[in-house]
C-alpha cells in the first residue's frame, strides 16, 4: 500500500461515498454545537420535519454570547441577559437541545465553557475522529489527532440530519519545527511565527500537519493553541499525530471510552501517524531556535514582529498590495513606523479565548502577575478561564488569588473579549494586549486595536502598561 | 555536562575572567547545572610557559569544549617575542574554524547617561554587528616593496553565504531587520556581497533587508543609531565599525563578543584589551567578561540564565555601582560580587513564583 499521511488515513477511514467530481461524503464522528451558528439549522430541521440522526454524537455548549460576569443571582435564579439578540440565541439553544434530545452543558453547568476547550477536556474529542463545529477555530481539536473543520449553518443542518458532510479532499502541508523553543517562547509565539512565515493565506486549500521535535515534546494544551490558529494561516485544518502524550491526556476523561473499547481504539490510533515515505504537497521547515516572544502590529495575524522589534515601515514591503495593506493597518492601529514595540502603551488586557484559556495558559500568566500590580493606566484586565473545569482547577492552585491580588478581574468561562459578541468589548480607539486569535479590524469592538500575544506576554503588558518582553519580567 | 574552557590570558584577562567564571559557577550551583570548567594557558603566559601563544594542548581542549571563554591577551612584556601573543588569537580562530564575529551593543534603559552621545540619540539602541572574520584584505596575499604595496581583498560565495546565514538567523531572534554594509559603488567584492546576500535573503522573507555604504553607515551610527538592528559586513569594515559602535554604550569595558564557526564550538570574549598597566590591581571592569558569559549561556541553550545574567548586570549598573572606567569606585571583585547578589535576588523570586504556580509542560515561560 502507498504510504499515507495522517490526514489521508483519517479521511480514507471516513469516506461513505466517493463522487465522480472528486467530492466525498464523509462520516462525522463528533459534532459540537453552540448558540450563535445553530438556531437556523434547527429551524431548518423543524421545517423539513427531520430529527437529529445521532444526538449521542452531538454536544451543545453556549459560549459566544454568554456574559462572563456572575450568571446566577443571590436567589439562585439565572440573571437576565441584557442584549436581546444574545438572550434570544441562548434561549433558542435551550429550546432546541430539549426538543431534539441533544446533550447540553448549559450556562450554569460546572463543565460549561468554550466549545474548543470543553471538547478535549471531557474526552469528547478523540484521535482519528472527524469533528465539526460551526466555528472558525474548530481545527483546535486537531491537537489530539482529530480531523476537525469549522462549518457553516447549512452544513450544521446537514450534519445534524445525516451525520455526514460532503467535502472535497484537501492538499497536504507539513510544517516541521525542529530544535527547542527558547526561554520565554510559548506555543502561541510558535504559531504566530508560523503564520508570519507562511502568511495568512499560506495554508489555503491545505490541511497542515505539525511535525517535528517541538510538537513531540509539547503538551496537549500547547498543541491546542497551535492547531487552533491553523485557520489564521488559511488552512482548512491542522493536525498533530496522536502519541503517548495524547493517550495519557485522554485516558480516564469522562466522555472518552474506557476498558476494551479504549484498548481497541488505542491500537488503531497507534497506526495513524504519517507513514515513512509519505509525501506532502508542500513542506515548510522552521527552526525553533529562531523564534522570539512575539506580538502582532497590524490587522492580520501574519503581521508578527518579535517584541524586541519595531513597527515596520510600509515602504519596506516589496509587494505593492502588502504596502497598501500595511499603511491601512498602521492607520487603524494608530502606530507609526520605527516605533519600538516595547514603547506601545495598552489600555486593556485580555487573557482568554479558545486559543489561550487553558490551565497552562493561566499558570504562565500567573507566573508573571504574581507579586505585581496591574499598571495604573490599564482600564481593564480580564482573565477568563476557558471552562468551568479550568476555572475550578485554577482556583484549586490559587491562581485566581494571584490574578485578583494583582488587580485582574477573574471571570466566568466564555468567549468573552475575543469577539465582541457579549458585554466584554474594547472601546473605539483603545488598545488591547490579547491572547485571542484574530486582530482583525473591529474584532474586539468597533475601532478596537488588538495586539495578539501569549498569555505570559499579555500578563507582562498588564503589569507594565505597555507591550513588554516577558523574559525581562520572569527573570526579575 | 557542558564543558567550558577558560583562557584567562594576560594583563587584566585573569581577573575579569575570574568574575565571569564565578557568575557562571553561581548560576550552575543554584540551578544544579553540570558546568565543567578547565583553565588553559593562552597568549603571553603560554609563550612564557610553553614557548608559543597557542599550545597544542590548549587548542585540543578548546576543540573538545562546548564553549570557550577568553579574557585578554598581549602586553609590553612580549613586544620582542618571536611570535606575539595576538598571533595566538588568529591561530585559535583558524583552529576552531571561527568565521563569524558577533558584537552586540545595547544601551540599557536608564544607562543612557553613560554614553558620550545625547540621551535622546542613544535611548533604545540595540545593535548587533555580524562581521566576517576569515576573509578579505586581512587574509589576502600581501606585497610590500620600497615604493609600492598591495593587499589582496578577496571573497568567495561560500564565505559570504555562511556568515550571511548566521546574521539572518540572529535577525530572526531579534528585530528581523538586517542591513548589509559595503562599498558596492567601487569595490568588486562588495558587488558580490550584494548579490549573494540578496540570494540568501530570499530564504528569510520575514527579515527586512536593506544595504548601506560603509561611509554612510559610519555617520548613521552616530546620527541615527536606532535605525539599525543587525549589521552584516565584511572583515575590514566590521573591524572598524564595531569599534565605533563600541563607544555608544559608554565604556569599552561594557562590551562582549562571540565568534562562531560551523561545528558548534564558539569563543566568547570581552572586546577590551589586556590593559597591562591595570593588571593585578583589581580595578578592571568585568562587565564585558560577564556579558560574554551571558552570550555563552545563550549559545549552550541556557537562554533563561543568559537573560537572567544580563538583567542582573543591568541591575548593578542601574544601582550606580561602577568601576573606575565609568567614574565609579567599585573594584573588579566588588562589581562581580554585586552581580552575583542580584542573580541571587532574581533567582529567589523566580523560584518562589515557580513553586507556587507549578511547572508547565511544553511552555517555558
Word description of this protein:
The complex is a heterodimer of chains A (476) and B (365). With 476 residues, chain A is an alpha/beta fold. Chain A has helices spanning 6-14, 39-48, 84-100, 115-122, 153-162, 187-198, 213-216, 220-228, 244-250, 259-269, 320-333, 359-369, 388-396, 399-406, 455-464, 470-474; strands at 15-18, 24-27, 30-33, 58-60, 130-133, 147-150, 164-167, 171-178, 206-211, 237-239, 282-287, 294-296, 304-306, 348-351, 380-383, 409-410, 431-434, 449-452. In chain A, the strands form five sheets. A five-stranded parallel sheet of chain A has the order 16-15-14-17-18. In chain A, helix 6 runs parallel beside helix 8, helix 12 (359-369) packs across helix 14 and helix 12 runs parallel beside helix 15. The radius of gyration of chain A is 22 Å and the shape is globular. The mean pLDDT of chain A is 96. Chain B is of the alpha/beta class and 365 residues long. Chain B has twelve helices and twelve strands. A ten-stranded mixed sheet of chain B has the order 2-1-3-12-11-4-5-10-8-9, sandwiched between helices. Chain B has a two-stranded antiparallel ribbon with strand order 6-7. In chain B, helix 6 packs across helix 7. The relative contact order of chain B is 0.16. The model of chain B is unreliable at 361-365 (pLDDT under 50).
DSSP summary, beta strand count of chain A: 18
How many strands, which pairing sense, and closed or not: the largest β-sheet of chain A? 5 strands, parallel
Identify the quaternary structure here: heterodimer
Task: Find the biggest chain interface.
Answer: A-B, 52 and 37 residues
Number of helices of chain B: 12
Which blocks of ≥5 consecutive residues of chain B have pLDDT under 50?
361-365
Q: Uncertain spans of chain A, ≥5 residues at pLDDT below 50? A: none
Mean pLDDT of chain A: 96
Shape of chain B: globular
Overall geometry of chain A: globular
Tell me the distance between the termini of chain A: 56 Å
Secondary structure tally: strands of chain B: 12
Helix- and strand-based class of chain A? alpha/beta
Amino acid at each position: 500500500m502507498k504510504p499515507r499521511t495522517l490526514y489521508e488515513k483519517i479521511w480514507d477511514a471516513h469516506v461513505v461515498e466517493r463522487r465522480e467530481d472528486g467530492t466525498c461524503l464523509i462520516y462525522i464522528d463528533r459534532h459540537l454545537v453552540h448558540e450563535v451558528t445553530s438556531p437556523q439549522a434547527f429551524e431548518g430541521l423543524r421545517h423539513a420535519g427531520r430529527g437529529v440522526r445521532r444526538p449521542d454524537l452531538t454536544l451543545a455548549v453556549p459560549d459566544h454570547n454568554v456574559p462572563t460576569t456572575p450568571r446566577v443571582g443571590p436567589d439562585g435564579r439565572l440573571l437576565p441577559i441584557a442584549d436581546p439578540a444574545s438572550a434570544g440565541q441562548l434561549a433558542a439553544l435551550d429550546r432546541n437541545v430539549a426538543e431534539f434530545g441533544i446533550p447540553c452543558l448549559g450556562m450554569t453547568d460546572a463543565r460549561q465553557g468554550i466549545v474548543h476547550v470543553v471538547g478535549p477536556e471531557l474526552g469528547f474529542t478523540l484521535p482519528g475522529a472527524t469533528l465539526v463545529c460551526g466555528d472558525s477555530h474548530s481545527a483546535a481539536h486537531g491537537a489530539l489527532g482529530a480531523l476537525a473543520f469549522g462549518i457553516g449553518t447549512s452544513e450544521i443542518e446537514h450534519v445534524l440530519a445525516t451525520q455526514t458532510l460532503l467535502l472535497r479532499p484537501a492538499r497536504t502541508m507539513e510544517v516541521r519545527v525542529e530544535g527547542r523553543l527558547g526561554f520565554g517562547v510559548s506555543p502561541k509565539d510558535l504559531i504566530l511565527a508560523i503564520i508570519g512565515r507562511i502568511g495568512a493565506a499560506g495554508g489555503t486549500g491545505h490541511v497542515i500537519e505539525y511535525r517535528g521535535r517541538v510538537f513531540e515534546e509539547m503538551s496537549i494544551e500547547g498543541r491546542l493553541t497551535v492547531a487552533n490558529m491553523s485557520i489564521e494561516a488559511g488552512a482548512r485544518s491542522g493536525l498533530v499525530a496522536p502519541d503517548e502524550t495524547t493517550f495519557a491526556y485522554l485516558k480516564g476523561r469522562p466522555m472518552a471510552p474506557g476498558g476494551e473499547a479504549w484498548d481497541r481504539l488505542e491500537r488503531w490510533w497507534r497506526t495513524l501517524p504519517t507513514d515513512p515515505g509519505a509525501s506532502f504537497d508542500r513542506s515548510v521547515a522552521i527552526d525553533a531556535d529562531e523564534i522570539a516572544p512575539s506580538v502582532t502590529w497590524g490587522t492580520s495575524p501574519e503581521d508578527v514582529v518579535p517584541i524586541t522589534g519595531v513597527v515596520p515601515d510600509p515602504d519596506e514591503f516589496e509587494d505593492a498590495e502588502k504596502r497598501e495593506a500595511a499603511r491601512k493597518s498602521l492607520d487603524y492601529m494608530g502606530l507609526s513606523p520605527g516605533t519600538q514595540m516595547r514603547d506601545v502603551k495598552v489600555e486593556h488586557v485580555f487573557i482568554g479565548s479558545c486559543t489561550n484559556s487553558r490551565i497552562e495558559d493561566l499558570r504562565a500568566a500567573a507566573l508573571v502577575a504574581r507579586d505585581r500590580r496591574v499598571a495604573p493606566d490599564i482600564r481593564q484586565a480580564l482573565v477568563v478561564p476557558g471552562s468551568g473545569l479550568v476555572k475550578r482547577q485554577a482556583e484549586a492552585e490559587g491562581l485566581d488569588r494571584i490574578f485578583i491580588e494583582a488587580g485582574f478581574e477573574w471571570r466566568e468561562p466564555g468567549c468573552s473579549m475575543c469577539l465582541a459578541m457579549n458585554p466584554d468589548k474594547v472601546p473605539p480607539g483603545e488598545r488591547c494586549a490579547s491572547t485571542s486569535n484574530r486582530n482583525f479590524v473591529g474584532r474586539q469592538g468597533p475601532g478596537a486595536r488588538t495586539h495578539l500575544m501569549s498569555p505570559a506576554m499579555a500578563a507582562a503588558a498588564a503589569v507594565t502598561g505597555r507591550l513588554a518582553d516577558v523574559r525581562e519580567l520572569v527573570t526579575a | 555536562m557542558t564543558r567550558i574552557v577558560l583562557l584567562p590570558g594576560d594583563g587584566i584577562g585573569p581577573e575579569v575572567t575570574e568574575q565571569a567564571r564565578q557568575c557562571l559557577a553561581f548560576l550552575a550551583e543554584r540551578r544544579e547545572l553540570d558546568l565543567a570548567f578547565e583553565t588553559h594557558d593562552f597568549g603571553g603566559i603560554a609563550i612564557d610557559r610553553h614557548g608559543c601563544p597557542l599550545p597544542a594542548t590548549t587548542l585540543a581542549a578548546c576543540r573538545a569544549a562546548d564553549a570557550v571563554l577568553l579574557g585578554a591577551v598581549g602586553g609590553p612584556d612580549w613586544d620582542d617575542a618571536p611570535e606575539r601573543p595576538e598571533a595566538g588569537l588568529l591561530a585559535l580562530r583558524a583552529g576552531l574554524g571561527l568565521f563569524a564575529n558577533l558584537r552586540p551593543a545595547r544601551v540599557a534603559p536608564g544607562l543612557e547617561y553613560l554614553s558620550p552621545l545625547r540621551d535622546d540619540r542613544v535611548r533604545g539602541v540595540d545593535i548587533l554587528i555580524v562581521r566576517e572574520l576569515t576573509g578579505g584584505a586581512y587574509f589576502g596575499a600581501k606585497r610590500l616593496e620600497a615604493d609600492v604595496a598591495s593587499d589582496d581583498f578577496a571573497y568567495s560565495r561560500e564565505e559570504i553565504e555562511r556568515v550571511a546565514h548566521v546574521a539572518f538567523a540572529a535577525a530572526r531572534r531579534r528585530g528581523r531587520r538586517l542591513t548589509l554594509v559595503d562599498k558596492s559603488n567601487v569595490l568588486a567584492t562588495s558587488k558580490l556581497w550584494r548579490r549573494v546576500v540578496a540570494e540568501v535573503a530570499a530564504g528569510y522573507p520575514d527579515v527586512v533587508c536593506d544595504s548601506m555604504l560603509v561611509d554612510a553607515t559610519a555617520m548613521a551610527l552616530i546620527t541615527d543609531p536606532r535605525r539599525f538592528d543587525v549589521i552584516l559586513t565584511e572583515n575590514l569594515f566590521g573591524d572598524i565599525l564595531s569599534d565605533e559602535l563600541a563607544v555608544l554604550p559608554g565604556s569599552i569595558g561594557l562590551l562582549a563578543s562571540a565568534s562562531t564557526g560551523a561545528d558548534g564550538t564558539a569563543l566568547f570574549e570581552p572586546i577590551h584589551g589586556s590593559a597591562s598597566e591595570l593588571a593585578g590591581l583589581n580595578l578592571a571592569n568585568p562587565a564585558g567578561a560577564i556579558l560574554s558569559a551571558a552570550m555563552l549561556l545563550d549559545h549552550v541553550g541556557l537562554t533563561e540564565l543568559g537573560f537572567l545574567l544580563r538583567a542582573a548586570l543591568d541591575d548593578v549598573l542601574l544601582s550606580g555601582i561602577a568601576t573606575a572606567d565609568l567614574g565609579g569606585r567599585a573594584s573588579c571583585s566588588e562589581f562581580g560580587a554585586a552581580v552575583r547578589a542580584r542573580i541571587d535576588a532574581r533567582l529567589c523570586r523566580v523560584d518562589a513564583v515557580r513553586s507556587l504556580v507549578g511547572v508547565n509542560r511544553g511552555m517555558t515561560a
